[in-house]
Amino acid sequence: MAAQVSTRHAHTMADSTRILDSLSTSVLIVDRHSSLLYLNVAAETLFGVSRNQMRGRPLAELLVDATALNAVIERATETWRPFSRRELTIRPVNADGDLIVDCTVAPFDEPSAPSAVLIEITDATQHQRITRETALLTQIGGSRAMIRQLAHEIKNPLGGLRGAAQLLARQLADASMREYTSVIISEADRLVALVDTLLGPVHSPRKESVNIHELLQHVGHLLAADSQSGVTIERDYDPSLPPLRLDRNQIIQAMLNLGRNALQALEQASPPRGKRIILRTRALTNVNIGARRHRVVASVQFEDNGPGVPEHLRDTLFYPLVTGRADGTGLGLAVAQDLVSRHDGLIEFDSRPGQTIFTILLPLHAANTGQ
Ligand SMILES: Nc1ncnc2c1ncn2[C@@H]1O[C@H](COP(=O)(O)OP(=O)(O)OP(=O)(O)O)[C@@H](O)[C@H]1O
Ligand SMILES: [Mg+2]
Q1: Could you tell me what percentage of the chain is helix, strand and coil, using 3-state DSSP and rounding each to the nearest 5?
Q2: Ligand 1 pocket: which of 198, 231, 258, 261 to mutate (most atoms <8 Å of CB)?
Q3: b/e code 301-334 from CB counts within 10 Å (16+ = b)
Q4: Ligand nearest to the CA of 302
Q5: Which residues of 237-269 are buried (b: 16+ CB within 10 A; e: fewer)?
Q6: Do 154 and 191 meet the contact criterion of CB atoms below 8 Å apart?
Q7: What is the pLDDT along the chain (371 residues), one digit of tens a residue?
């Protein structure tokens, strides 16, 4: 009888292990000293370790810095209640880069593991990307409508101002006074040009089949001609990227804006291993841009090792007139985002001191359906 009970117990244990292993959520159990008792397969994958090797090892060995996770565990054990934190940033020792995760810690008291805690970790990176992207897309839509409105308000009185200055110039007997009217006229013209840039190209994209690497080579040459000496431009291309249907000039302009920003960011910088810009392409599969899912998307990245995007600009970076440079107009990114969104694409960025990456995502669908 006793034997029967224990076999049944063994069965249930095996079953629950199998169930835990088919979860996409990472599950870890640690004892009261924070030593690992158990990891499921998802946790092994997330942390890049095997559970046999980690059994009995301290939880802290999995992470570069376990402070954030330990704080969640402490909260749960102090109150002896489950405790959750959303969007926690962790960095596994065996993975490259940070992960953003949602984490729940629950006290777990079993005869086999007294006063233990069970930790559940789910990947929140994708979720965060969608939130940020949605915010971006709303920003673009909102700013475009605002610009149209503003452009009209500015252009109308400017026409009047310019006309009046011309009339005045003709009436002025003293030629030296005409210097002033010509300042009025040229400044009015400069404003009109600025507003026109804000409005972007009037025509919709003229799409043709284009090899994106050929465009990037061209952009690379222009950047090299622009740059002061000492900037290395590297290339890291994915040769499997098929041709895209796009408006060559519009996409060149968008890329040039990103490239010039990278150059300008490097002007005052002195990175330890020299100033570098990397032009990178990749083919990505199953990517969401806004609400649409695309089977294949071309990713074109401009990476630099400059100081990074100033913290206070990050939330509004793609708004027109947002600039961190004394002589900047703050139109480059707004225009680039507009041009790319006309191709159903998106520009996003990731920036920290020493590594800034702007990514243009362009869906490939049109090339395949021959639109
Ligand atoms: N690669 C980068 N590294 C650091 N900061 C950047 C980078 N790219 C853009 N920025 C910041 O974003 C700001 C806005 O860029 P944006 O291209 O929109 O305008 P701008 O370069 O200031 O002016 P414009 O492009 O109209 O001449 C820049 O002024 C700069 O502060
Ligand atoms: Mg710029």
Answers
A1: 45, 25, 25
A2: 261
A3: bbbbbbbbbeeeeeeebbbbebeeeeeeebbbbb
A4: 1
A5: eeeebeebbbbeebbbbbbbbbbbbbbbbbeee
A6: yes
A7: 444 445 555 556 567 778 888 888 899 999 989 999 999 998 998 898 998 999 999 999 999 999 999 999 999 999 888 999 988 889 999 877 788 889 999 998 888 778 899 999 988 776 666 666 667 766 666 666 777 777 777 888 888 889 999 999 999 888 888 888 998 998 898 888 878 777 766 677 889 999 999 999 999 999 998 887 789 999 999 999 999 999 998 999 999 999 999 999 999 888 888 999 999 999 998 888 877 888 899 999 999 999 999 999 998 898 878 899 888 888 889 889 888 988 989 999 999 999 999 999 999 864 444 33
Q: What is the pTM of this model?
A: 0.62
Using CA atoms, how far apart are residues 181 and 170, in angstroms rounded to an integer?
A: 10
State the distance from the centre of ligand 2 to the C-alpha of 322, rounded, in angstroms: 10
What is the CA(264)–ligand 1 centre distance, in A?
Answer: 8
| Cα–Cα distance measured from residue 343 to residue 186, given in angstroms and rounded to the nearest whole number | 35
Q: Which helix (H) or strand (E) holds 276?
A: strand 275-289
Give the helix/strand (H/E) hosting 361.
strand 355-363
What would the two tokens of residue 288 be? 């969401």
